[in-house]
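Researcher: I'd like a candidate sequence for this fold, 345 residues long. If you have to choose between options at a position, lean toward the conservative one.
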């Protein structure tokens, strides 16, 4: 048989061509930048209702025959099941977790994206409570597991750790470390602008850690990617964009709290409306970071209180406060400060 190169094409011979102007191509945004969201009208906030923090279970299911119980568990007897569930609910609120209840399962997530699952079963007049890690830091999961299982047994919460004075020699070393912050910030921003999602998240985590401690020197023009992450609302709380949204809010809350950036940047980028809307976000960790941003703005830039009120912050704060009291301790405390600073009663 003949080789492919020796086979002639069956197509007719080209005798003439028609040349036209090339069509206009759509401009595709760079993969390193997120598109800015158009300004939308603030949605009406629902009137605050009595938020429910209790894990409502009519009946606690029995443990399945083929179910393998994890190592992080406790067995509790001589106690009503609803009392155990109430103890766990209160512990989750104290830990300031974003929680979703699904029958005998509580899905909990921290602000650093560590997700754990709490389950309760009945087993021969006893109750079994287990904690499983799904994603995130194993060290944080271990701390949460101890707190939740201890609360389920009725143990008192561990006392707050003692605070010690930092020796002067260490303080001098910390001053020298301050000079390296600018380079650390540049490295973190470089990671955030990479294409791979895990690299972006690593950069976000580093930036949160750097900005959380004290005032830092940062070029506001380098924060445009973060502002776009805040403006671009995620379709659900499980994709990478939702994590970037929460982390970007955390970074801005740190920067505003330590006066590392001016509030005018928030106004110029159109973030103020999004911050007010995020007060009633389904993820209470997002609500908490939005409240931190608004609290810092009201504390250091009181002239902007009227701008915040114009986006319906009054009702949003009431709703967030009720949710915080019921389900998220840090959110409740932060919104309480925000209401006092913004003169919203």
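Model: Candidate sequence:
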């Amino acid at each position: 048989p003949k080789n492919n190169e020796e086979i002639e094409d069956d197509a007719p011979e080209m005798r003439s061509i028609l040349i036209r102007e090339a069509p206009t191509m759509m401009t595709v945004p760079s993969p390193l930048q997120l598109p800015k969201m158009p300004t939308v009208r603030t949605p009406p906030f629902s009137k605050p209702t009595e938020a429910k923090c209790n894990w409502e279970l009519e009946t606690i299911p029995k443990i399945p025959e083929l179910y393998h119980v994890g190592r992080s568990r406790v067995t509790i007897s001589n106690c009503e099941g609803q009392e155990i569930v109430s103890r766990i609910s209160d512990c989750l609120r104290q830990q300031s977790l974003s929680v979703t209840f699904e029958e005998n399962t509580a899905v909990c997530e921290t602000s650093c994206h560590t997700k754990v699952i709490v389950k309760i079963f009945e087993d021969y007049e006893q109750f079994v409570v287990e904690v499983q890690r799904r994603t995130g830091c194993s060290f944080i999961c271990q701390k949460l597991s101890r707190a939740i299982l201890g609360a389920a047994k009725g143990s008192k919460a561990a006392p707050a750790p003692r605070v010690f004075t930092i020796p002067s020699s260490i303080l001098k070393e910390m001053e020298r470390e301050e000079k390296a912050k600018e380079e650390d910030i540049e490295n973190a921003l470089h990671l955030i602008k990479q294409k791979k999602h895990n690299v972006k998240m690593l950069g976000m985590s580093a930036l949160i850690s750097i900005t959380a401690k004290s005032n830092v020197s940062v070029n506001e023009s380098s924060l445009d990617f973060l502002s776009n992450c805040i403006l671009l609302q995620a379709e659900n709380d499980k994709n990478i964009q939702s994590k970037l949204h929460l982390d970007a809010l955390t970074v801005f809350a740190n920067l505003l709290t330590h006066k590392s950036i001016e509030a005018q940047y928030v106004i110029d980028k159109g973030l103020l409306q999004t911050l007010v809307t995020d007060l009633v976000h389904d993820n209470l960790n997002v609500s908490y970071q939005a409240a931190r941003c608004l609290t810092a703005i009201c504390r250091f830039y009181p002239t902007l209180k009227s701008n915040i009120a114009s986006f319906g912050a009054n009702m949003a704060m009431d709703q967030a406060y009720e949710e915080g009291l019921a389900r998220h301790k840090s959110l409740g405390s932060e919104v309480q400060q925000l209401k006092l600073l913004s003169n919203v009663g």
